[in-house]
Amino acid sequence: MTQGDRCADVLAEHFAAGRNLCVGLDPDPARLPPTLLPSAPIEERVVAFHREIIDRTADIACAFKPNAAFYEALGPAGARALAATIRAVKDRAPDVPVILDAKRADIGSTNQGYVTAAFDVLGADAITVHPYLGREALRPFLEQDDKLIFVLARTSNPGGGEFQDLVVAGQPLYRHVARAVATDWNDRGNCGVVIGATFPDELAQVRQDIPPSVPALVPGVGAQGGDLAAAVDAHRRSGSEAFLISVSRSILYASSGPDFAEAAGAEAERVHAALRA
């Protein structure tokens, strides 16, 4: 993406072209191919690994999604690797947005620091955030017209329903969150929601609750066992093509051998073909 592009507009173009695969970039040192720069520092190995993945998937991915936790676990080397990975996307796939999966949220002044770190320092195009502190606290994110703010609604983890499923005014809390994000919070047209593929019924409910143009980031397909067909069907039945199916481990670690990049590309192509089908 070039300066001045709105992330929402770029993604809308990808959706119209049938590109709905979001490739997660989650480095696990224990699973990096042992033949890849075996004597190099970890940050160089991570970045070299991701460059290969980016090159093999850039023509079909609608977004790349580095998860901040995997990099933060590597300490200062991880911070450098995260910045270099985002730069690699900008250099090798300039038309593909970067979603920083950081799940940030705090009081407004702290959120301003998160905004600066994610967008000005790292150069991400979108970010995931928690809704629990409300719209007022998230205003520093929501004021970023050219970015996309993906707000957690119904998460993919098994215990997510502990609070998200609580019935409030006759409906589960996650549905209230999704509607608020898609309408009240979305006056700049820069909001999306996160809905896990591991709960297809809930996903279908949320998709019916929000406008077709509001993008949904859908994790949980692949290693978590989410139902790809059900996730796609939920959107298509609601008349929406605005969804990103996020797949990480099953693409990244499709092979641990020297053919890791080819295997990752083949798995990404398989998922892409399934999405188009």
What's a concise summary of this model?
The chain has helices at 7-16, 42-57, 68-72, 76-92, 108-121, 134-142, 161-164, 173-182, 200-209, 228-237, 249-252, 260-276, and strands at residues 21-25, 61-66, 99-104, 126-129, 148-154, 167-168, 171-172, 191-195, 216-218, 243-247. With 277 residues, the chain is an alpha/beta fold. The protein has one domain: TIM Barrel, CATH 3.20.20.
Strand-helix topology:
Blueprint: H1 7-16, E1 21-25, H2 42-57, E2 61-66, H3 68-72, H4 76-92, E3 99-104, H5 108-121, E4 126-129, H6 134-142, E5 148-154, H7 161-164, E6 167-168, E7 171-172, H8 173-182, E8 191-195, H9 200-209, E9 216-218, H10 228-237, E10 243-247, H11 249-252, H12 260-276
Parallel strand pairs: 1-2, 1-10, 3-4, 4-5, 5-8, 8-9, 9-10
Antiparallel strand pairs: 6-7
Largest beta-sheet details: 8 strands, parallel
Query: How many separate domains?
Result: 1
Percentage of residues in helical conformation: 40-55%
- Strand sequence of the main sheet, in spatial order? 2-1-10-9-8-5-4-3
Indicate the radius of gyration in whole angstroms.
18 Å
Mean pLDDT: 96
Your description of this structure?
The protein has 277 residues and is of the alpha/beta class. It has a single domain, classed as TIM Barrel, CATH 3.20.20.70. The chain is built from twelve helices and ten strands. The strands form two sheets. The protein has an eight-stranded parallel sheet with strand order 2-1-10-9-8-5-4-3. A two-stranded antiparallel sheet has the order 6-7. Helix 5 links the parallel strand 3 and strand 4. Helix 9 packs parallel to helix 10. The protein is globular, with a radius of gyration of 18 Å. The model has no long low-confidence stretch (mean pLDDT 96).
